[in-house]
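Bench log. Compound arrived from synthesis this morning; before running ITC I wanted a structural hypothesis for how 9MR sits in the protein. Inputs:
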Amino acid sequence: MKVQIRAYVPLITTILLFSDCSTIKNTAGGGVPSLKETYKNDFLIGAALGARYIQRSDLRADSLIKRQFNAATPENVMKAGIIHPGWNTYRFELADQLVEYGRQNNIRINAHTLIWHNQLPGFLRNMEDADSVRAFFESHISTVASRYDGKVYSWDVVNEALNEDGTLRNSIFLQKLGPAYVTEAFRLAGKAAPHTELYYNDYGIENPRKRAGAVALVKKIQAAGIRIDGIGIQGHWQLGKVPYKNIEESIRVFSGLGIRVMITELDLSVLPEHAADPYPHGLPDSVQNNLAREYETLFRLFLQYRKQISRVTFWGVEDGHSWLNDWPVKGRTNYPLLFDRNDVPKKAFYSVIDAGKK
Ligand code: 9MR
């Protein structure tokens, strides 16, 4: 009997997700609540969207996205390797589709990302000549950022420029353009996209040494009289090891710089870093409960800083398509998000909703 009921849960949820939203809204306590509604007076709630969602090849997820989120970040389609694959070749189709999707559905787009050492176009990867790297850097930023100015809400202008100790990462941009490249990227982006907010985004910047590096970067940009509007704490954390104190301190320190703070890539891995694949057939209740508890604690913390935090974005929609199924070990079964592989809200979803009801 138990098994039969379980089998019907995805079906019932699908029916609820597809049914008329007004009915759900009017049903006190009935139906699936909405994250964006629950947090509408606090901060935006976003999700990273992979190509499958942008192309709307997954209609069940599509209806979930529209109901739950009012912000989105392209998981990959605006990265240089995809949008700018050859010197004079740009592929804007999927990015354009995402922008249009956002416009139609009242979903604010945070464009991601202009300058990053990863997912670079092949032609750039082994480029020796500094002038050529500079030419790429300038034309990439101005072409891509100006195309979407006024159409996207914000850009992650520079992504992951820092090492864990707060020094600058030894990327092709540092090697060929020198340490001023970060400030320069913001200058060029500000010129190309005067109506778009400009952010620095990184993981682990809640940790004190890396945080100090991020503060120094922001101060340098500000001292040069160049605009930076916010900083993204990515939020790829591990169940049982969420650094709450450091997160709180970082929200205070970053907002003290006079810029917005965002949680930009939130997910909580439930798998020990190097374990084989401990839960291939489902998450044990005890871990499910821990996940719910940690998400609730996090959102209660975010709410304490609702004046400083403008957006909380999850890195994905549902567990089945999270990057964490393939990292740091390929082909595992992870459960880091609020919706399961059938798009059914997990216990963690309801704990985030409860936290938001205050
Ligand atoms: O989720 C993204 C995955 O599909 C890509 O293969 C990967 C390539 O490095 O990038 C992932 O997204 C990253 C994001 O752009 C920047 N912060 C870390 C994210 C997870 O790796």
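What the model suggests: The beta strands are 44-49, 71-74, 108-115, 154-159, 197-202, 230-233, 236-238, 260-269, 309-314. DSSP finds 15 helices and nine strands in the chain.
ITC booked for Thursday regardless.
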